[in-house]
Amino acid sequence: MENYLLERKLSEESRDLHNRAAESVFVLQTMLSKYLTRFPDFTDHSFLHSMNVLDYCNRIIGDDQIKKLNPEECYVLIMGCYLHDIGMGINNHDFAEFSEAMDFGDYFDYHDGADDAATVRAFHNEYSGLFIRKYSKIFDIPSEEMTRAIIQVSRGHRKTDLFNRSEFGDIHAGDAVIRTAYLAAVMRLADEIDVASDRNPILLFGNKTLTEEVSIVEFGLHESIMQVDVGADAVTLHTRPKSDEYRLRIEALTDKISNTLNYCRTVAEQTSDLRIRQNKVLIKEWD
Hints:
Blueprint: H1 5-13, H2 15-31, H3 47-66, H4 71-83, H5 92-101, H6 107-110, H7 116-122, H8 124-134, H9 144-155, E1 170-173, E2 176-179, H10 180-192, H11 201-205, H12 213-223, E3 225-230, E4 234-239, H13 244-271, E5 280-285
Parallel strand pairs: 4-5
Antiparallel strand pairs: 1-2, 3-4
């Protein structure tokens, strides 16, 4: 069984960190739904998505490797799973405050008409990091080192360079060493493979507001993927394409996931003594 491995190990080896995480999860159930204010038609970034990501992390790591993690790493990864998308639901005050501190690079040179929602979407991992920093006391994170590790693992779920050791180096928290690059790689892959139909807010919140063509296509892609399995050596997409068009879109998505998988495998190999076991992405027709 590869369910709840992180949670179980944390409970057994550090009741204090387990209790801190459990209390944070209780608070986050409501907070994570705030993304719907800006993104009513967007794929699920709620508490349910966070739970899926955590479940996939457990399956990616597996029972043998979970033994190599210390409880601090389990805590950081669990918290990262629940907090990595918290930036999607920030309020207008925090958006303005955080934007002042952000480095947007040349984004606005190529996205001159980007509104607040588009900016949040493009940089939500960075907004998540700033949110965690500002509200770390709400989540009762026990130290500055732990806070920094959670921020980096959360930020690392997209776009960031996980090979950059100045940003994703090992963090010492007391006697523990937190391997942030490996943890971020696992979560980036877990986030990437949460593409099955239960990620679709049409099924969760109703479909009357879905009007944009891009959203309709995106939701149709999710509806064509019935289930995602993570095995010892492969990620398998079980699919029932809505049309031949979606068959091609599934193939393109599979290539994208494969690229992420290969990147994350290499990060794990080059930055830690841990590994990502899965080495291929398969498509299987749903019976």
